[in-house]
């Protein structure tokens, strides 16, 4: 039995309500029983659509294959985006349903831990690539302007007197929100007035990232919508032509019937 669009849509709804179907992680002593019960319900819901039936293992394999295929397409788009100059954009775009599947699976599941940037050190090229993969629109040009306007750090000076020579650096970690104190000695080792710079770090997760709209590339959702609209108009056009032809036949038959009735009437009058 061929899996139809209606099956995928319903399967996505069920996965959204039950993420365990995607992760296949059913914890606890009753995990195996819970998995069997849940997949039994999913199988019943999918088979009741009326397009044919699959056994439970058939639907599980269908979902596994779909996840694997979608991850491969996303990886291909990622490789294109990482090429010099942004790539040639030859990788096939993701469909609306594939984008929804990736959203449920999550970035970590698709790309792994190495794709998650550390706080305060965001990889903007990687962000653009992932937004491309998930069919999102970005506005990075504005992000540059906003980052220029947003103070990354502010400094004020506090005089401090040290009684003996020191050469120490206290770094409490970037992105931790704590202050970084830097104290250095002069060549003579004499105590002098030093400046402790209090740096306020702004977490990169709170910054607004926007990228310019890519007007040259339509999103996969819009392309899919246009294709469906064209197909709909083709069907409507074919139906309209069929109705017009049938109407002409009815008119022609009606005229023939009227002519026959007139002949019969003339014969009866004679």
UniProtKB/TrEMBL annotation:
Keywords: Transcription, Transcription regulation. Residues 8-75 form the Myb/SANT-like DNA-binding domain. Pfam families: Myb_DNA-bind_5. GO terms for cellular component: nucleus. InterPro entries: Myb_DNA-bind_5 (IPR028002). Involved in transvection phenomena (= synapsis-dependent gene expression), where the synaptic pairing of chromosomes carrying genes with which zeste interacts influences the expression of these genes. Zeste binds to DNA and stimulates transcription from a nearby promoter. Self-associates forming complexes of several hundred monomers. This is Regulatory protein zeste. It comes from Ceutorhynchus assimilis (cabbage seed weevil).
